[in-house]
Amino acid sequence: MRRLALLFVLVLGGGLAACGEAEHPKPPPRSWDRDALGYYCNMVVVEHKGPKAQIFLSGREDPLWFTSVRDGIAFSRSKEEPGRILAFYVNDMGSTDWDRPSDRSWIDAETAWYVIGSSKRGGMGMPEAVPFEDREKAEAFARKYGGRVVGFDEIPDDYIFSTSEPAPEVPRG
Known about the structure:
Helix content: 25-40%
Structural class: alpha+beta
Number of strands: 7
Oligomer: single chain
Order of helices and strands: HEEHEEEEHEH
Radius of gyration: 20 Å
Strand order of the largest sheet: 2-1-3-4
Strand content: 15-25%
CATH class: Alpha Beta
Largest sheet: 4 strands, antiparallel
């Protein structure tokens, strides 16, 4: 009987401790303005083409902004990042323009489909992980610009952390 009482106290105590832990609600995506600066480059986010990213951390009201999705993914996979990410959003490139992405096209980064290895370059001129909410739109993009469609967890670390410079553009004409 004493063991049963001890088990009850342990279970009840664990449940009460869990109730005391504050859960952080997932913040909604924000719209950017001219004050939104890229976390790594400290450049104005709206001045760059291609998809962007924003990441919310616990204990911080404003998101960290990234001029490219690739940079946002690198941040989320960084060994130094202690897992404080509350929300991670990227632009859905199936519903916005490459040259001027809408700040109202945000989707959850972890559920998006990505085209990697395409000929399109991200905000800093590097290879990009191009996000889409709709897999069919991602596949159409890959047919047009090359690359392959993968889920968030299938993006290889070496694609994200590669420091190789993009190939120079060949003039047409």
